[in-house]
Amino acid sequence: MSSPKEDSAAPAPAAAGPGRAGGKHGPPGGGDRGAWAQGRAGMMSTAELPDRTEVLIAGGGPVGLAAAVELGQRGITCVVIEPRATVSHARPRCKTISIRSMEHLRRWGIAHRLRERAPLPVAWSQDVVFCTSLTGHELSRFSGVLGLSTDGYRSAETGQQAPQYVLEELLRDVVEELPAVTLATGRRVTGLDQDDDAVEIAVADDAGERSVISAAYVVGCDGPRSAVRAAIGADYVGEHALRPNFGMVFQAPELLERTAHGPAVQYWILNRIAPSLMGPIDLHGTWWIIAFGVDRTTGERDASAIIEGAAGTSVQATVLSHDPWTARMQLVDRARDRRVFIAGDAAHLNPPFGGHGLNTGIGDAVDLGWKLAAVLQGWGGPGLLDSYEAERRPIQTRVIAAAAANNRVLAADLLDDDADAPGERGERARHEADSRIQADKRAEFHALSLVLDLAYEKSPVIAADGPGPVLGDDDDPVTEARPGARLPHAWVAPGRSMHDELGSGMTLLALGDDPFERLVRAADDRGVPLRVVRQDSTLRDHYGAALMLVRPDQHVAWCADRMPDDVAGLIDHVRGAGTSGGGR
Hints:
With 584 residues, this protein is α+β, with helices and mostly antiparallel strands.
């Protein structure tokens, strides 16, 4: 193997050489993991980095850390390379942790820890308000938004409003608790090269000291300027919005109590002075705001006027940070080159409206994480890694389309100059505004079908004899199990979901007395970890099947009322065996 090619300039990493085509899967040098399992928890200097690891993760944001948790909890050694020594609070970015992401945090045993740290309790508000200003007229309202409803019907969890840095700091703490994971901050990946057996990754620290780490696999979670994406020659494809946006974080301790519309997680401001979107970060006067159509120069010059225009009154505010940005609707042309994968923002970008970007990235990390672990542990076949793009790309495409649709109707597009007018003219304008807002924006705030019902319809490792998954909508959710879809939630005991019964490997749900021993033997013969969960037949009508084989990510791999004749073939199918990998 040649040495990894490096880029001498940090801002724009150059692509590494192509390496050699083809490649076996699993640990370099064969199936023995021993030499590659040398991770050590904690933060390290470059000199202390291990020279080899099973998985190297470029990027220690929420997606990279989620991948590390998924791998580290299974004992897979991984090194996370992250340039930032500390997590900045200047740009809260994502503020919605979806129900689906919270289900993953619950599976990792840390959902309660995020809720304890979140500065806005779920019970504080589940509303989004559209208004002429914080002190002006209310135009429309959505309740039970963004998965914050607590009815317990669709999931054991609810969504959680929390700045991205809260999640990221929690995940840093969690990976430092995992003996298999090394979090190396103050470093960046500068290049990589791979052959049939391994990947060599060049790493540099802030002082320019360089080292090389060998890994069985690499996962690039290093964002829009991804060095890993550049190294495999992948490119974004899609659109760039023309309209600029200007984000700010500011402190205004008295603003929340002066707001005329009560608690809300978002306030959409519809006026000519400051068409914007804003909300509280905490209950102590810290706010975020996005001014639509405002460029960096204008935003920095007119920051106070924007805040006062949104508030509708004079405000004593201290601006803490600026964040100019432009929406991008882009997906990479490919997310894998043999032993190297990309996930999260390195693989796809979408506008923030609806709160899907980070959550889609966590879904990427989960899908890829358990599959890498299965291959490294010896029970996953080469087709399992081939299924990563087949499963995630349609999901990413659908999410980008939904976010782009939300992006097409923003505050400036909903303005009515008469909305603040007195008398009948104002009442009529506000009534018309309410109807327009409800029609145009409902899908943005009530999108549980997009969060919970997305399914891997054409996955090569999903066993489905009939038609693809039946997907519902927010008004008519699907509760039956379908191959490729997330196993629907059901309560099996007070406070305990069926999801809580699932194992870290495959799980067979047996609802009734149908025999399943042949499947258990077939899994055991192939080293597939299989937990059997028996429940009485009362849940059979709910799930629509007596037997369900569920993957570690809670997606149904197969379901039926009786065992197939070829149980060995079924196990091989869902573990990706019997197919040739390569993954170019």
